[in-house]
Amino acid sequence: MLILGIDPGSRLTGYGVLDASTTTPRYVASGCIRIQADDLAQKLAQIYAGISELIAVHAPGEFAIEQVFMSKNADSALKLGQARGTAIVCAANHGLPVSEYGPRQIKQAVAGTGSADKAQVQHMVTAILGLDGTPQADAADALAIALTHAHARQGLLTAGSFGGHRRRRRGTSWRDFQP
Length: 179
Prior knowledge:
Elements: E1 2-7, E2 12-19, E3 26-34, H1 40-58, E4 62-66, H2 74-93, E5 98-101, H3 103-111, H4 118-129, H5 137-153, E6 165-168
Parallel strand pairs: 1-4, 4-5
Antiparallel strand pairs: 1-2, 2-3, 5-6
Helix pairs in contact: 1-2, 3-5, 4-5
């Protein structure tokens, strides 16, 4: 079972693909969707198109994404929420179940502490997956999200105080629903 992890952003959207068909997740691919547009609608369209392409190329069976967290900058939080929503709609339109994880839960699952910084997450993702090089920060975050989901599938996570795990049921395209 392939897992597509997404770290959404309005300029860079990180992605990570893991094969979780065994007890030890295996690295498949990672990188960033680089958003070139200035207009918000076009940025969201590029995110949707990029994730659609990843789904077509890798054919994941599950989709994992980071939950929204509060930011001091309301404008940044709104843009992040819109990027997240676009990614979730893309996954749902492709029939993928969507799982969401809080930032602290992801850090706890990968680095052992909910207060880990980006460098610690990058280091641990590299070590856990046995990568030859360190992935870019957004790609490492996406791989961490996919790893967190792989652990959740194996029952290795607890909801505890680290943000909880929400899974949305597998859906069909919104086009299938009639009023």
